[in-house]
């Protein structure tokens, strides 16, 4: 264990801990824009700079040494990080109210912390290139005027999903996050999993149809057999948002395109809303009593005429375990083992 | 799965993925594998298509569809010949090795190479890689099972894992990735014709007695009909009524013409679903069901992990959960014990009837999922199976060599191509849910039959050209897309699209043991239209 | 000495002697990029045709750059028994004349000659090697440039080449490092890190593979030292790299050369093939069992790829981005995570001589802290621009006024810029400083890899700073905020200042930004990018203030801050300016003094150039008042 002093607080941390992690452990906030706990460090935003034993270092990358004395708020440190945040703001879209990340934006948080001063900002030349957003993807769009080039989306695509559909392109001030050939993202091998969207610290990546939920309900994704934990975001009586549940051991928050975005069917207008009974070749609406009486009568009728084995139950791998249990129970209680489901398809 | 996603992803040094398009059908497991490979794990992929994960493979075996057993036993032969097996494991935990070894050793590797179309040296390389880095995890899905030789294929995979001692340990195992959210749960809770909940055979006198008493009925001790036979039985007049819930057989079943014909023959067809599906057309009654977001319950994932789903919103109109529907129906049918206090109550009964689930309660599930077997309330669950013993009489794993059997259909002059089917990342099964998502449809909305570049050139086909695909059972028109990922003579289609329904063409021949249809191989002809 | 090398050396010497003794004239044409750009290739062709026509046998050598770029195309003629005469500014026509006069007859044409090398030359022309250009120079790294045929390995060997390698192969690895450490050699890439220590730290780690990389990604504006060495003496660099490979235990090396250097790449390719043929490169070198081979990697020309970690990323096929600190040392985990020795072209090139002549010889040149020589690409408004090599410790003044021959057109010296975009500008009162790694840094500039640009009074220092900032702005890789956004911000402010939009507080803004960029950038590019601004503010702050406060450009350069007008009293109404004006902004008739319509004037400056010096009627004015008057259209009132 290494002893480290951060802003006068003494803490012990394991060898290999970064200054950032040590500060976190000590409960000390260090502003950062490009660091993300899920991802390897990048070290590009230069906002997490601190004084470590008299040297200015990036807290996210620098490992602690035994006896290290770290100061996170010296005049020099404050100046450097303020300057870097000011520079980012100089080419950042100022219209925060219409941004989907207003109030949950890391750049806002960090700006507030470093203390942006209007007087100083007046000296700074602003240049926001008026680039149109890439709205090719149906689920999320890309607004380059809000991108701070932290590379979190790129590292996410490389490290979390492994697709590596995006990377930095061009150079210097003209650098942007791009797919191969700088095409719209829809024309790339992006799998639309939205993992980048989740991690974007600003509103550069945003939902095409954002709706903020009123409450969240923990559940499990209804598509494949992986069983990813999700949080259903509910507004009114509608599911408006799905998020990966980071506490779930199966996926730890990761989701695929279907799991994250494929929830339209829940609120779909074509949903069946009432039982239907076919009369003279035409389906007519019926009450539950009518419908279930019809079903019970017909099944009993077949059983009495042809025996229970003339009935077949096709259950579903889509329903809950409790429901498939009850389904087989009905058929077995009727006296047949003719019950199965789509396991083989 | 014998193992959990975590232990495989974190500890396997080699992945052997076969018959699984993991990154599209189980994307989040795909992420984990790609991460593991980044961290140094090695990868073997065997698939008739050069699927995306194959880009990362150290060894890629592009075998001819339906020749899995030949490939796998060829690998076993190399492991035996080069003595790459785990002697201790074989000695202590298995039986039948000598017989197995004798039979496998007599295989001619060159013959296997001939059958599979994979060079012998590549088969050997895969075998060495798989056996050479322990632990090694096998991952497979329907590319292994949806064959007339499906059971044999699985046995052949199990043989490899047993030979190399890759069972009952972290990072190893034989891991079928279950395709649907609760296919594991449906099996576990007895929605199968031969077993009661917890895989207790209907033919077992004790089990039969227990269930017959509990359900107040005389349950036959002979297995019932699997779904794949029910429709044939309907055509033969043995089945008169079917109750279909959450399933669209007129899109998903092989040889659709036969299915629709059978549905027409039935006296009673009940369909219970979220939407008016293609199958609902054939129904006498259609019952509106609640979606997963509108009810409480559990799903069991591919790791046998039982997890809670929770009601978030109300169902539309008067739609009800399947659970509520069955409770009412059970009572209307005059059956005993359909008065539950919600899903938790049903779970309580499942625990009583299925010893493997005995320790699983809703209270415990609040803290997270539990993998069965979980025999009592203090049991932590079992993420990895067979750590101590196998489910055989002796508790030892049994070797079983199989004979390679070719698929039911082989290409001929009339039907010179092999059609194999699968899923896309953007859609799910029959598309009942995903095709109603504007966004998913925007990304992928028209079936494109994938054909090899060679066939495209020979037939003068380019992308978006339409072809008529025909088999002995039916025909379908679809657009084509020539791709380099397929070998000459192979065609690939998904089964998501009712309007270009690949299952018009597929073969309903079954595996004799598992009754699984040979969806992965059928022969077709292809003409430009 | 290794026997096998003796044979090779003898063969080379014999080949050269045979040439020298065969009594035919030798003609050298400077065919480096500088020569070719001024037409050397057509001169070569003309000479060949002419000799054919006249039926004269002579040996024509295409040699590298001898450094006198101001005089290109250079053609040197050595007649048997005569000294080498150099002809300057040779065109195909002049080449024919030279052959007619000097080769076919005996007229050495003093009118065309620049001078002669060695002793015993004609009295009516200058001896070059003792003259101003060369007397202060000491050619070590450039000793073969412009002298040997770079495409003939025998010429290199005959002048002592590969001897260093042959000696090294008989030494222990530690011994070689010992010599290097003893010599005090510091890396010639700019930072001046002790080479011996670097090699040592690369020898230490155990690894199945190590790499040697030659950094030939020279990219500073106005710098062409490395290119000239590769073009003029490729074997010296190759030899240095083989020695390095042997010393650290590597079997594979890379040249990282920018693709904009096609001639260097071509010469390197030929040189590598010849070295392989002679068993000086490849497997079992000189029968010693040591294997080493070299590969050329063509970079895409990004300036940042000169930074070692970015260079390594680039060879690995990644985006050429520097790795942020903390990171493993390249000498421990470099290319493909293997120990890697990376040095500049000139560093490798001088190593063979140090080994064959000894550490003491090297230490005898230059200063104690910076032994050896410095190679500069001397450019700007100077009479003799070119490639020079001077001993470390020489005064700046000597370089500019003696080697470079002073300021062009006798204008007034203003500053000298060294170290390229990473360096700074030094004013006249710093000209006494001596050139070495440490002194220049103290003065706010740096050696850099060796660009030296001389600036005279007609240059605006804010504009100079803007020029270099524009370069680093374009070349910033974009990885870190301070460099990516900061260079852009500084450039915007400089643009504003140059264009009359400067604000009070801008100088402080620039200084503060510069400080933060230096402190927080990832790599050397960003950490030095503000230097041109900081040093010009330090030494020429008044110019900045004039721009900001008075909207005045004292050097009369910044277009937006100057107006052109015609002094009625001086104007003779010759009409030249009127005819030359591309936008017809000038009006006037015969005998009527001309006028410039300020609303039409685009400030192209053509009228100023056209007006004969003896009249000097077109004048440039600057400052708020003049600009305002011009805007009101009443400039003549002022």
Q: What keywords describe this structure?
A:
A: 345 residues, alpha+beta, Alpha-Beta Plaits, N-terminal domain of TfIIb, 26% helix, B: 529 residues, alpha/beta, Dimethylsulfoxide Reductase, domain 2, five-stranded parallel sheet, 20 helices, 17% strand
**Can you give the mean pLDDT of chain B?**
94
Which overall shape of chain A is indicated by the principal axes computed on the Cα atoms? elongated
Poorly predicted spans of chain B: none
Give the CATH topology of the largest domain in chain A: Ubiquitin-like (UB roll)
Describe the global form of chain B: globular
**What is the radius of gyration of chain A?**
28 Å
CATH class of the largest domain in chain B: Alpha Beta
User: Tally of extended strands of chain A?
Assistant: 16
Radius of gyration of chain B equals 24 Å
Structure description:
The complex is a heterotrimer of chains A (345), B (529) and C (638). Chain A is built from 9 helices and 16 strands. Chain A has 345 residues and is α+β, with helices and mostly antiparallel strands. In chain A, the strands form 6 sheets. In chain A, strands 2-1-5-3-4 form a 5-stranded mixed beta sheet, with helices on both faces. Chain A has a 3-stranded antiparallel beta sheet with strand order 10-11-12. In chain A, strand 10 and strand 11 form a beta hairpin. Chain A is elongated. Chain A starts with a strand and ends with a strand. With 529 residues, chain B is an alpha/beta fold. Chain B folds into 3 domains: 173 residues, Dimethylsulfoxide Reductase, domain 2; 125 residues, Rossmann fold, CATH 3.40.50; 112 residues, Beta Barrel (Barwin-like endoglucanases). Chain B is built from 20 helices and 21 strands. Chain B has a 6-stranded mixed beta barrel. In chain B, strands 3-2-1-5-6 form a 5-stranded parallel beta sheet, with helices on both faces. Chain B is globular. By secondary structure, chain C is an alpha/beta fold. Chain C has 5 domains: 110 residues, 3-Layer(aba) Sandwich (Glutaredoxin), CATH 3.40.30.10; 203 residues, NADH-ubiquinone oxidoreductase 51kDa subunit (Rossmann fold); 84 residues, Ubiquitin-like (UB roll) (Roll); 90 residues, de novo design (two linked rop proteins), CATH 1.20.1440.230; 79 residues, Alpha-Beta Plaits. In chain C, the strands form 5 sheets. In chain C, strands 2-1-3-4-5 form a 5-stranded mixed beta sheet. In chain C, helix 20 runs antiparallel to helix 22. Chain C starts with a helix and ends in a 6-residue tail after the last helix. Chains in contact: A-B, A-C. Chains A and B meet through helix 5, strand 10, strand 11, helix 7 and strand 13 of A and helix 3, helix 11, helix 13, strand 9 and strand 10 of B.
């Amino acid at each position: 264990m290494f002893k480290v002093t951060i802003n006068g607080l003494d803490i012990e941390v394991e060898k290999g801990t970064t200054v950032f992690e040590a500060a976190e452990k000590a409960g000390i906030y260090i502003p950062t824009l490009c660091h993300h706990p899920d991802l390897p460090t990048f070290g590009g935003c230069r906002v997490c700079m601190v004084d470590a034993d008299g040297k200015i270092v990036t807290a996210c990358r620098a490992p602690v040494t035994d006896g290290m004395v770290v100061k996170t708020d010296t005049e020099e440190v404050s100046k450097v990080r303020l300057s870097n945040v000011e520079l980012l703001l100089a080419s950042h879209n100022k219209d925060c109210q219409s941004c989907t990340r207003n109030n949950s934006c890391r750049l806002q948080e960090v700006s507030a912390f470093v203390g942006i001063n209007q007087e100083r900002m007046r000296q700074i030349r602003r240049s926001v290139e008026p680039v149109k957003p890439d709205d090719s993807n149906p689920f999320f769009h890309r607004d380059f005027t809000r991108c701070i080039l932290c590379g979190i989306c790129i590292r996410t695509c490389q490290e979390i999903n492994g697709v590596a559909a995006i990377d930095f392109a061009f150079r210097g001030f003209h650098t942007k996050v791009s797919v191969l050939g700088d095409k719209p993202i829809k024309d790339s091998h992006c799998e639309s999993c939205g993992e980048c969207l989740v991690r974007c610290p600003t509103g550069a990546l945003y939902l095409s149809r954002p709706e903020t939920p009123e409450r969240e309900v923990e559940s499990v994704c209804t598509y494949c057999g992986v069983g990813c934990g999700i949080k259903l975001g509910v507004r009114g009586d509608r599911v408006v948002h799905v998020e990966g549940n980071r506490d779930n051991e199966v996926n730890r928050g990761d989701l695929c395109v279907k799991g994250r975005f494929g929830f339209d069917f829940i609120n779909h207008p074509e949903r069946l809303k009432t039982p239907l009974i076919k009369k003279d070749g035409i389906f007519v609406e019926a009450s539950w009593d009518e419908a279930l009486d019809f079903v019970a009568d017909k099944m009993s009728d077949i059983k009495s005429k042809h025996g229970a084995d003339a009935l077949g139950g096709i259950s579903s791998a889509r329903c809950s375990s409790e429901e498939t249990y009850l389904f087989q129970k009905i058929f077995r209680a009727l006296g047949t083992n003719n019950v199965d489901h789509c396991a083989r398809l | 799965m014998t193992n959990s996603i975590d232990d495989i992803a974190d500890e396997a040094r080699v992945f052997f993925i076969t018959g699984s398009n993991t990154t599209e059908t189980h994307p989040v497991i795909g992420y984990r594998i790609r991460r593991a490979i980044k961290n140094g794990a090695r990868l073997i992929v065997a698939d008739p298509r050069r699927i995306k994960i194959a880009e990362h493979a150290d060894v890629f075996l592009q075998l001819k569809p339906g020749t899995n057993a030949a490939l796998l036993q060829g690998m076993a032969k190399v492991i035996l010949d080069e003595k790459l097996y785990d002697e201790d494991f074989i000695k202590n935990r298995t039986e039948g090795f000598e017989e197995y070894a004798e039979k496998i050793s007599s295989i001619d590797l060159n013959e296997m190479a001939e059958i599979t179309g994979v060079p012998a040296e590549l088969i050997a390389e895969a075998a060495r890689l798989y056996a050479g880095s322990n632990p090694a995890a096998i991952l497979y899905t329907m590319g292994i099972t949806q064959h007339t030789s499906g059971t044999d294929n699985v046995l052949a995979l199990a043989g490899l894992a047993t030979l190399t001692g890759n069972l009952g340990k972290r990072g190893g195992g034989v891991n079928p990735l279950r395709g649907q959210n609760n296919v594991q749960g449906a099996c576990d809770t007895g929605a199968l014709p031969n077993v009661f909940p917890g895989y207790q055979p209907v033919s077992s006198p004790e089990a039969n007695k227990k269930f017959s008493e509990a359900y107040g009925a005389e349950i036959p001790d002979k297995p019932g009909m699997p779904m794949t036979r029910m429709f044939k039985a309907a055509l033969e007049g043995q089945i008169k009524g079917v109750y279909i819930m959450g399933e669209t057989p007129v899109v998903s079943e092989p040889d659709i013409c036969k299915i629709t014909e059978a549905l027409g023959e039935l006296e009673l067809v009940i369909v219970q679903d979220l939407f008016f599906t293609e199958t609902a057309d054939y129904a006498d009654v259609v019952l509106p069901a609640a979606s997963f977001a509108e009810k409480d319950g559990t799903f069991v994932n591919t790791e046998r992990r039982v997890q809670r789903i929770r009601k978030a919103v109300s169902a539309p109109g008067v739609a009800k959960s399947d659970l509520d529907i069955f409770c009412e129906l059970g009572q209307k049918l005059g059956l005993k014990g359909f008065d539950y206090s919600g899903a938790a109550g049903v779970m309580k009964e499942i625990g009583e009837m299925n010893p493997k689930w005995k320790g699983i309660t809703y209270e415990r599930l609040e803290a997270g999922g539990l993998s069965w077997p979980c025999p009592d309330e203090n049991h932590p669950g079992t993420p990895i199976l067979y750590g101590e013993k196998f489910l055989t009489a002796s508790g030892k794993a049994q070797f079983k060599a199989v004979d390679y059997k070719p698929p039911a259909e082989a290409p001929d002059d009339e039907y010179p191509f092999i059609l194999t089917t699968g899923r896309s990342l953007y859609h799910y099964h029959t598309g009942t849910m995903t095709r109603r998502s504007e966004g998913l449809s925007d990304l992928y909305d028209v079936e494109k039959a994938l054909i090899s570049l060679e066939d495209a050139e020979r037939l003068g086909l380019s992308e978006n050209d339409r072809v008529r695909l025909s088999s002995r059972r039916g025909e379908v028109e679809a657009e084509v897309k020539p791709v380099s990922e397929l070998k000459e003579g192979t065609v690939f289609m998904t089964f998501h699209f009712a309007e270009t329904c690949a299952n018009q063409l597929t073969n309903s021949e079954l595996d004799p043991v598992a009754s699984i249809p040979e969806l992965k191989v059928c022969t077709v002809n292809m003409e430009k239209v | 000495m290794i026997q096998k090398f003796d044979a090779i050396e003898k063969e080379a010497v014999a080949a050269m002697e045979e040439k020298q003794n065969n009594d035919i004239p030798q003609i050298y044409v400077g065919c480096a990029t500088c020569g070719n750009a001024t037409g050397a290739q057509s001169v070569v062709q003309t000479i060949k045709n002419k000799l054919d026509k006249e039926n004269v046998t002579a040996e024509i050598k295409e040699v590298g750059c001898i450094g006198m770029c101001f005089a290109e195309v250079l053609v040197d003629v050595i007649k048997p028994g005569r000294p080498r005469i150099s002809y300057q500014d040779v065109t195909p026509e002049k080449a024919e004349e030279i052959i007619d006069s000097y080769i076919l007859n005996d007229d050495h044409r003093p009118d065309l000659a620049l001078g002669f090398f060695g002793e015993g030359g004609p009295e009516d022309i200058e001896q070059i090697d003792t003259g101003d250009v060369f007397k202060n120079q000491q050619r070590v790294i450039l000793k073969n440039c412009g002298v040997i045929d770079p495409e003939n390995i025998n010429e290199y060997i005959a002048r002592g080449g590969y001897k260093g390698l042959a000696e090294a192969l008989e030494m222990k690895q530690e011994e070689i490092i010992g010599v290097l450490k003893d010599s005090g050699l510091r890396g010639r890439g700019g930072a001046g890190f002790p080479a011996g220590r670097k090699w040592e730290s690369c020898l230490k780690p155990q690894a199945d593979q190590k790499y040697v990389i030659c950094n030939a990604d020279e990219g500073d504006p106005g710098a062409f030292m490395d290119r000239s060495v590769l073009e003029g003496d490729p074997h010296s660099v190759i030899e240095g790299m083989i020695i390095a490979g042997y010393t650290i235990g590597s079997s594979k090396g890379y040249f990282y050369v920018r693709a904009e250097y096609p001639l260097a790449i071509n010469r390197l390719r030929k040189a590598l093939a010849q070295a392989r043929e002679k068993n000086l490169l490849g497997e079992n070198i000189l029968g010693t069992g040591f294997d080493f081979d070299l590969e050329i990697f063509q970079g895409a020309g990004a300036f940042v790829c000169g930074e070692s970690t970015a260079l390594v990323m680039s060879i690995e096929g990644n985006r050429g981005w520097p790795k942020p600190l903390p990171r493993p040392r390249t000498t421990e985990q470099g290319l493909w995570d293997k120990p890697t020795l990376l040095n500049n072209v000139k560093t490798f090139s001088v190593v063979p001589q140090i080994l064959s002549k000894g550490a003491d010889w090297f230490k005898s040149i230059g200063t104690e802290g910076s032994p050896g020589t410095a190679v500069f690409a001397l450019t700007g408004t100077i009479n003799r621009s070119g490639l020079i090599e001077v001993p470390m410790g020489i005064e700046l003044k000597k370089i500019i006024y003696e080697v470079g021959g002073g300021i062009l057109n006798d204008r007034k010296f203003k500053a000298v810029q060294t170290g390229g975009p990473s360096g700074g500008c030094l004013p006249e009162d710093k000209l006494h400083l001596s050139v070495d790694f440490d002194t220049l840094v103290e003065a706010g500039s740096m050696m850099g890899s060796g660009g030296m640009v001389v600036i005279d009074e007609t240059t605006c220092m804010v504009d100079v700073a803007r020029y270099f900032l524009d370069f680093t702005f374009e070349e910033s890789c974009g990885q870190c905020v301070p460099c990516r956004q900061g260079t852009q911000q500084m450039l915007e402010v400089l643009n504003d200042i140059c264009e009359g939009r400067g604000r009070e507080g801008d100088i402080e803004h620039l200084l503060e930004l510069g400080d933060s960029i230096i402190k927080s950038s990832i790599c050397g590019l960003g950490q030095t990018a503000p230097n041109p601004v900081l040093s010009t503010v330090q030494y020429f702050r008044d110019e900045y203030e004039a721009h900001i406060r008075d909207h005045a450009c004292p050097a009369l350069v910044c277009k937006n801050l100057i107006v052109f007008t015609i002094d009625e009293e001086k104007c003779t109404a010759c009409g030249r300016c009127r005819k030359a004006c591309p936008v017809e902004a000038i009006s006037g008739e015969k005998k009527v003094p001309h006028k410039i319509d300020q609303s039409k004037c685009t400030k192209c400056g053509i009228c100023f150039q056209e007006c004969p010096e003896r009249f000097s009627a077109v004048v440039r004015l600057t400052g708020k008042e003049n600009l305002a008057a011009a805007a009101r259209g009443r400039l003549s009132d002022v």
